[in-house]
Amino acid sequence: MSDTLIPEHLKYTVSHEWVLKEGDVVTIGITDHAQHELGDIVFVELPEVGQTVEAGKGVAVIEAVKTVADVYSPAAGEVVEVNTILADDAGSINRDAYGSWIVKIRLTGALPSDLLDASGYKAQL
Amino acid sequence: MLSVSGASHTDDFLKAIPSHLRLNKPLALASGLSEMALSREVRRMAGKNRGLTDLTTFLGMGWTKHFIPAAVDSIVSRSEFTTAYTPYQAEASQGSLQQIFEYQTMVTELTGMEISNASLYDGATSLVEGLVMASASTKGRKGFAIARSVNPRWREVANTYAPSSNWSFHDIAWDPSTGMLDRSGAQAALAGGQIAALVVQSPNAFGQVEDLAGLSELAKASGALLVVAADPLSLSVIEPPSTFGADIVVGEMLGMGIPTSLGGPGLGLLATRKSLLRQMPGRVVGRTVDADGKRAYCLTAQTREQHIRREKATSNICSNQGLMVVSASVYLALQGPAGLAEVAEQCASRLAYAREELGKAKIRPLFSGTAIQEQAFALASGSRARVEAACKTAGLLPGVWLADYISGIPADTILVCVNETHTRADLDLLVATLSTAGGI
Fold this sequence. Notes:
A: six-stranded antiparallel sheet, 4 helices
C-alpha cells in the first residue's frame, strides 16, 4: 500500500471515506485505496439535496463493474450539494479520488472524534 | 419433516392438487413384479395419457405453441450451450455473452425499447419485476392500476407478491362494447395519487389488440409509468409499445423456439428505457473491445443482482434463462423479421377462417376488435359440458374457458388460440365440434 495516495490535510474513516471539514459543512469522497479496490467505477447513485443523513448510514452508492459499495456519512446532517459531474463521469473517481468529491453535508452536530488522520488511515490499511 | 413443516400427514403436501385429480388409492400393481415387468406395466398405464402431441390443441393464454425448426434443437443441444450454467465468470464465456447480446438486440428490435435485460424466468415473473421497477422509479409507490384483461395467471403471480411488498391493485374493467381498456376506469384507478404504474396487456386476455394511444399520457399525468405486457409474435405485425410511450415492456417468449412442454420452462422478456437501467433486474451484456482492440462482450450492468448488491439486492431473480435464451434467439434469427411476421399472418388468417366458419353457427367473437393468434368466442349459453364431452371424443382441446380465470365473463366463453401448424382439417374439426355442441 506504499503507493496509495493519502493527503495529509484530510480526515479518514475506516470505511474508506475521506472527509474535509470547512465550517459546518463536510465534503465527502472515497479514498484512492477504495477506488483501487473497487475497480472501474461505472455509476454513482447520488442522494437528493435536502435529504437528511444519519451518522454511519449510507449516503451514496458506488457501482463498479464487479461490485457495489455504499458511501457512509461520517456524521448526521443534511445534504447541501452533490457532485453532479459524477452522473456523466463516474470514472473520474478512479482518475482522481480526492478531486472527485461525492456529497457535501451540513453537520447538525460535531464530527465524531474517532476519524483518522493520514498516518492513522495508512496504518490500518 | 412433518413437525418442522407443520403438516400432520404427508398427504398435506399434496393439497395443492385438486382432490378429483388425485389417485386416492394405491396403484393397481401386482406384488413381487420384476423391474422389467414393472416398467412395462407402468409404461402401459402411462400410455393412456393423451398429451399435446396426441390431441389437436387450441390452448393459449400466454403459452402459445408454434412450429420449432429442427435447426433450433440442433444448435441448442450442442454441449457448449446445454452444459453451461449462467456465466458467473462472465468474460471467460464469450460465446454465452455474445449469444445473450444477440438476444437483447432482437428483443429491443421487437419491442422498440432502448434496452433489454438478459431475460427472466417467464412472462409472469417479468410482469412482477416490471412492477418492482415501476415502484422503485416512483419513489416507492405501491399501487398499480391494472387492467382486468391482463393475463389472469400472471396477475395471480403478481398477487402473491402483494402482501410482503404492501402492494395494492386497482382493477380497471374492460369496455363492455370493445373488450379494450375502459379509459374512464383507468383514469379513476390512477387518481389515487400513489399509483406506480398503469398496467395493460396487448393483445389482452381476450386476444384483442389494445389501443395504447394516449395511455402513456394518462399514466404520466398521475406520475405513473406505463407497463405493457406484450406478445413477441404479435409485435412482428403491430406497432411496438415504444411507439405509444411505454416505459417497461414485459412478455413471454415461450413459443419462440421454446416448446410448451408441461407449460414450461418459459422465458421472460423485459425491456425498458435507458433511464430505468438502474432499476432493471437481471443483467445486461454489452459489446466492447478487449486490450488488443478486438471485439469482446462483457457484463455491463447487473445493478440489482445478489452477487453484486449482496444483502441490498432488490431482485430475487438474478439469473437469466440461458438455454431458453439460446432457443429463442436461434429461432428469431432463423425467422428474421419477415419470417416472424409471416408466422403471425399465418396465424391471423387461420383465426379469420375459424371466425368466419364459426359465424355460420352463430358463434361470434366476444368482442369484435383486431385479434392475431387468439380470440374469445361466445358459445351457446349452457353448452360448456356438451362441448367438453364432444371435444373429448374428437381428441380436441378447443381452448381455455375464460370464466375459470376472469370473473364477469359468460361461462361458455372459450379462448381459442391458433397457430401456423394447424391444417385446414384441424380448423374444420374445431369448427364442426364447436358448432355442433356449442352453436347457437
